[in-house]
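Form 12-C: Joint structure prediction
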Amino acid sequence: MNKLDKNEFRLTNQRKVILEELKKVKSHPTATEIYDMVRKKMPRISLGTVYRNLELLSNNSIIQKLDFGEAQKRFDGNPTTHYHINCKGCGRVDDVDMPLNQELDELAENATSYKVSSHHVEFSGFCVSCQN
Amino acid sequence: MNKLDKNEFRLTNQRKVILEELKKVKSHPTATEIYDMVRKKMPRISLGTVYRNLELLSNNSIIQKLDFGEAQKRFDGNPTTHYHINCKGCGRVDDVDMPLNQELDELAENATSYKVSSHHVEFSGFCVSCQN
DNA sequence: TAAAAATTAGTAATAATTACCAAATGATAA
DNA sequence: TTATCATTTGGTAATTATTACTAATTTTTA
Ligand SMILES: [Mn+2]
Ligand SMILES: [Mn+2]
Ligand SMILES: [Zn+2]
Ligand SMILES: [Zn+2]
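Section 2 - Result
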């Protein structure tokens, strides 16, 4: 039951298509890549609308905004926490389907004076086509 | 034996002070914060020089460039891999002194088709002064 | 000491993201 | 329905972190 279901904001056509297109792919696209995808369905949408809605959707945990230290942020249609891997050759980002290591949070809580709430893991390496 | 020791680039005064000031603190400062620190010692240094040298030093593994999804990147005078925690209240970044979990790399390698070489962990939570 | 190479300060350019605003759209209720 | 009110959009301008450029300076080399 997120804010969309509760009608705290409208499911406009623009919003719907952005969400649909993002959920279709597992490539973790950037805002401009999403803009290009969406424009094929809605040629008149503006880049500002894409940014505004990606921000709204990620602030409301309907999608995720990811940062891999590249120039542009990436987006993930899957809002649940999971690990990612970034190819040092071509930059592609894939999911790592392994269970979250919850004990890490406890270990970090013992090692610091923080109240730890979550963690992110980002692996790096080389994808199949970059392994040579 | 890094490129500095091998004289592959010069240890200019600017470079020396940037490195010294960064190594003095454990606050993971941004480029402009380092600029402000360094300017107290070298009032005429330019921000471009700070950026250029931070880039050079991190490319040569003498320091680290870190990204916590904030507007500005942060820098770490400690080049060895270690985990960090980011306060959701005030944004401060601290080290998490716990051993690296090397098995994570193996688990990720089994879960993907990548050749995995390393991983980063970023915890989030609330620091002592933000716990209320 | 002359020439070559590296580095700097200062400034301009780039590029991702955010802010702004008038027009359009959709919801609400008399 | 119809008038009002709130939300959202497209288009564009502004912001800002970072990079690029360049002439001058410093250091190295021969
Ligand atoms: Mn993902
Ligand atoms: Mn650190
Ligand atoms: Zn690759
Ligand atoms: Zn805090």
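Section 3 - Comments
Residues 15 and 53 of chain A are 6 Å apart (CA to CA). DSSP finds four helices and five strands in chain A.
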